């Protein structure tokens, strides 16, 4: 009888968790109807390294063993292992809906973890006891439209996996009454590094959550915090040892990054976290700080200052914890953005875990105030604040529902990017690729020409224009595109190789007589000789 009751209880708990996870994913459910986009094609759709035999390689082999799958300079074996698991579950068919469902489930479980954490923190002495307050605060994280990229795009799932590990570790730590559970929390937090190494700052901050409840003191939590830090330290050392073993190097551009560039990127990320009106995958890093950026940065500084002053109260500790998480969670993204001059929405995801704590601290500050603001008591003002928060969440749902359809396919995604950034050549280039893949060669040629107009040094645009011209059976324009591209890119070796291959490809398609091959081959060899050699073969 007791065993049957236990199974019913577990099934009920699982149903509640899944229901809450679905609630957290509500604005992004459109993603289930989408296909693979951009990096998904290389990392999932045509990736030959998603079998069981590749699991060992993702954890212990050099990145060069996985050339062409988008692993680059990242060491994220946990994320790649989940891709392998999904491939096995689907029997190698890899339907997009499975990968989108996993991304949504991961995001939804992050919401469940944040909700539990908020309830644990706000139920402490003097804290808010209303369940709806915790739900609304957790939905601040889950329903923000800035989360659409990670929730809707399988290749961006590394951020949500890392966040899920962090949230689970926080829940374990807050629940811990034994040193063993505190050590387990540290190990789970260290596991987040294997999903996204940018969580390092938050991993080291994790034991500080034990000090957030108003009744907490260093004497009470010291042993658990030290054990958690020891476990975190061992896990972090293991991570960096394994990372160095597989020879994943730091980006070379890191040494050239200027602090001002990082500061502008960080201020823009903070502004988007507070006011996500400009959602984009290919957002450039701003060259200066706008008024909105300065207001967001100033607001965070003021909040942290107030939190430090009120650190003996629950409200102040919540604000300090939330603001620190927001800052430390987005800073690695700002550094990466400064390296690659690209500021996508996903760089906000991990840091946005601090938004519910920050909002909860401000709400607790209003509730705990001893003053009357006008004719409203602090309790009445708190209720009004919750109503405003609910309205903001509804606006977030509406915006999220508008954002998810752009992740349906490449064409929808890059059409949106071109509307946002008409001066960026990469947006037009990727739109041209998407149009050519669906057979719209006329529009593809127009998009590639725009990419060349805005960025003549982007060699890929010239190469794809040549391929598109061949698809349209225009051999002369294909040759012109390659020759002009070689001039515009100062003799890029890839374009020179393509020019050498062009005669045979044109002959195969029946676009030119065979006796013209010698002349074109001689021209390509002449250009190759002038460029100084040292060319690499094109991938298949």
Topology:
Elements: H1 2-24, H2 39-45, H3 53-60, H4 77-89, H5 96-122, H6 131-142, H7 148-152, H8 157-175, H9 179-191, H10 200-205, H11 218-245, H12 259-274, H13 291-309, H14 314-340, H15 355-367, H16 378-403, H17 410-420, H18 425-437, H19 441-454, H20 459-471, H21 475-488, H22 493-508, H23 517-530
Helix pairs in contact: 1-5, 3-4, 5-6, 5-8, 6-15, 6-16, 8-9, 9-11, 12-13, 12-14, 13-14, 14-15, 15-16, 17-18, 18-19, 18-20, 19-20, 20-21, 20-22, 21-22, 22-23
What structural keywords apply?
mainly alpha; 540 residues; Serine Threonine Protein Phosphatase 5, Tetratricopeptide repeat; 66% helix
Shape category: globular
Q: How large a portion of the residues is in β-strands, by DSSP E?
A: under 5%
Secondary-structure element pattern, one letter each: HHHHHHHHHHHHHHHHHHHHHHH
Number of structurally distinct domains: 2
DSSP strand tally: 0
Largest sheet: none
Distance between the termini: 63 Å
Indicate the radius of gyration in whole angstroms.
26 Å
Give the overall average pLDDT: 81
What's the helix count? 23
Taking pLDDT < 50 over at least 5 consecutive residues as the criterion, the unreliable ranges are: 125-129, 524-540
The structural class is mainly alpha
Share of helix, binned: 55-70%
């Amino acid at each position: 009888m007791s065993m049957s009751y236990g199974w019913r209880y577990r099934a009920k708990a699982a149903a509640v968790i899944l229901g809450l996870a679905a609630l957290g994913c509500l604005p992004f459910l459109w993603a289930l109807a989408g296909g693979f986009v951009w990096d998904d094609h290389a990392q999932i759709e045509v990736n030959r390294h998603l079998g069981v035999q590749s699991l060992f390689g993702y954890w212990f082999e050099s990145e060069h063993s996985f050339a062409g799958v988008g692993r680059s300079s990242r060491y994220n074996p946990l994320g790649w292992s989940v891709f392998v698991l999904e491939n096995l579950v689907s029997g190698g068919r890899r339907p997009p809906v499975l990968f989108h469902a996993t991304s949504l489930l991961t995001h939804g479980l992050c919401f469940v973890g944040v909700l539990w954490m908020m309830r644990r923190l706000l139920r402490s002495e003097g804290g808010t006891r209303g369940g709806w307050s915790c739900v609304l605060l957790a939905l601040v994280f889950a329903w923000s439209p800035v989360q659409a990229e990670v929730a809707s795009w399988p290749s961006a799932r590394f951020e949500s996996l890392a966040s899920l590990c962090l949230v689970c570790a926080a829940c374990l730590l807050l629940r811990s009454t034994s040193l063993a559970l505190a050590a387990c929390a540290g190990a789970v937090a260290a596991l987040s590094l294997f999903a996204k190494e940018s969580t390092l700052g938050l991993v080291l901050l994790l034991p500080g959550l034990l000090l957030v409840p108003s009744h907490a003191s260093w004497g009470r939590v010291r042993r658990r915090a030290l054990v958690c830090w020891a476990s975190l330290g061992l896990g972090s050392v293991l991570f960096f040892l394994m990372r160095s073993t597989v020879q994943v190097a730091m980006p070379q551009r890191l040494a050239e990054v200027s602090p001002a560039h990082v500061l502008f990127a960080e201020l823009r990320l903070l502004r988007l976290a507070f006011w996500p009106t400009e959602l984009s995958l290919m957002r450039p890093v701003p060259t200066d700080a706008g008024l909105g950026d300065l207001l967001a940065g100033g607001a965070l500084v003021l909040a942290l200052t107030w939190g430090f002053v009120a650190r003996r109260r629950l409200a102040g500790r919540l604000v300090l914890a939330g603001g620190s998480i927001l800052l430390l969670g987005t800073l690695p993204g700002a550094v990466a953005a400064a390296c690659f001059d690209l500021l996508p929405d996903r760089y906000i995801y991990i840091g946005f875990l601090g938004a519910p704590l920050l909002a909860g601290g401000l709400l607790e500050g209003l509730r705990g105030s001893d003053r009357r603001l006008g004719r409203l008591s602090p309790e009445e003002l708190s209720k009004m604040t919750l109503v405003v928060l609910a309205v903001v969440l509804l606006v977030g749902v509406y915006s999220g529902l508008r954002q998810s359809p752009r992740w349906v396919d490449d064409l929808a995604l890059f059409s949106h990017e071109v509307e946002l950034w008409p001066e960026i050549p990469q947006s037009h280039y990727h739109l041209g690729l998407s149009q050519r893949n669906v057979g719209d060669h006329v529009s593809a040629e127009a998009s590639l020409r725009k990419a060349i107009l805005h960025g003549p040094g982007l060699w890929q645009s010239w190469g794809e224009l040549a391929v598109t011209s061949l698809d349209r059976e225009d051999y002369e324009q294909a040759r012109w595109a390659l020759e002009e591209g070689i001039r515009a890119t100062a003799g890029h070796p890839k374009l020179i190789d393509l020019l050498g291959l062009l005669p045979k490809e044109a002959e195969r398609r029946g676009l030119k007589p065979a006796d013209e091959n010698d002349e074109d081959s001689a021209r390509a060899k002449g250009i190759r000789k002038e460029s100084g050699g040292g060319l690499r073969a094109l991938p298949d």
